[in-house]
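Tokens for Tyrosyl-DNA phosphodiesterase 2. Go.
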Amino acid sequence: MSSDDREGSENNSEVAVASTSAEELNSDTKTKSVLKFITWNTDGLHREHLIPRAEAVCRTILNEQADIVFLQEVVPQSAEYFRNHLTDYQCLFGNEEGYFIGTLFKKSTVSYKGSQIIDFPTTMARNCLKVNV
């Protein structure tokens, strides 16, 4: 991540960008030679500078032209920001309260087939977001 992308983000936020070659892609993908995905802990539990961090996440997603994005520690305010500013992406979230995970995928390159939230019976209100693409 460049220094421009880090502007306004916390030092303990993590981002990873990866690619997959065409040979590794399923035949159901929309004729693209490389699949790019990003995984990022958005540090939503620390409310200070939440929107600048969300802006940095959006900027990185758009600059990298990621096809699939996995987000951790999303909170309602950042989820709303992602939905409003990443209109070329389908945004799915594991919850709408507290903090939760999210999966975003580019509508033009990934075909959405359905999703399911699988609850885990813990005191931390965690769940799994299963997305079929």
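The two ends are 27 Å apart (CA to CA).
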